[in-house]
Here is the input.
Amino acid sequence: MARKVIIIGSGPAGYTAALYAARANLNPLMIDGGAGRGQELLGAGGQLMITTEVENYPGFEHGIQGPELMERMRKQVQRFGTEIIEDLVTKIDLSQRPFKVWVNDDLYEARTVIVTTGASAKWIGLPEERPVWEGGLGGAGVSACATCDGFFFRGKVVAVVGGGDTAMEEAIYLTNHATKVYVIHRRDTLRASKIMQERAQRNPKIEFIWNSAVEKVHDPERKRLSSLTLRNLATNTVSDLEVQGLFVAIGHKPNTDLFAGQLELDESGYIATHHDVRTNVYGVYAAGDVQDHEYRQAVSAAGSGCMAAIQAERFLETEGEDGANRVEW
Ligand code: NAP
Here is the structure.
């Protein structure tokens, strides 16, 4: 018999959806992403597993380590009976109901599906840039989220890599904390919108370094960032830049490959949602970073996970046990 709800993914959105679904007696099954797929997917717990201190999740007045927060969320959903499969979904069929979800050769069927597969920050690709799990600098200096980590760079000098709106936004935000913010961009023109470009260029704390790429991050052995080796791509010359923080802002990739051709995606590949968390398929919801490229916060992801579970519950309730009252939106 088909399950009432399957939740795909286990970041703050997934766990919150599971919590609400479990407490509404929907007996949710969560497929948590397992160990992910190397650098491409993060696996169970999502982006917070590679974050150090989280100071902006309400309820933890002294902050909490990202992995510990995720572990607590996991235990909380298990306490209410969420069943968790520690693996990746390998195939999905949302073309008819019940929906079909495969984990390798095992098939699971469900009347509703909540997609919370998140997004992955893009990294430059330097071996020493990758945080925590590869023994890199992590919270000691390399980040992909100024809102999360900017606070740790009060009074310090930092660099942002990228030339898009995110890089401008991160650079401007970081001027609230840092004494100086370098923006390192690989070309001599920005991709960011005019208004964001102007705002960044007007800010006296921001200095642009054009036509340049970060070639090396120093010094992973000491687990602290002290400087960057830059290559000027126009002149092919190399120089050193002293900074204590590096913010990589070269874009995010939503983890939506599985749903291409089945769910409506926006032009950047995020799941398009209508009326908050509903996808274009009746009974399928999307919550968290997989559908949100604006806020990207643990707490906003958790909020949308809650909304998805409540919507799924109402959908099931309206449809009835036998699915006689078809819900359309
Ligand atoms: P984006 O627009 O794709 O820009 C990525 C930037 O990173 C580009 O400047 C790109 O350089 C650079 N880049 C990419 N790969 C790189 C690499 N390997 N090494 C060095 N540089 C690299 O991404 P985004 O800034 O995250 O924005 C994503 C979307 O969200 C956009 O549509 C944006 O407008 C929107 N957004 C809007 C706001 C806002 O309105 N407030 C804020 C944030 C984001 P090139 O330019 O050379 O390609």
Remarks:
- The helical segments are 12-23, 66-79, 146-149, 165-174, 194-202, 298-319.
- The pocket of NAP is lined by residues 124, 161-167, 169, 186-187, 191, 250-251, 268, 293 (CB under 6 Å).
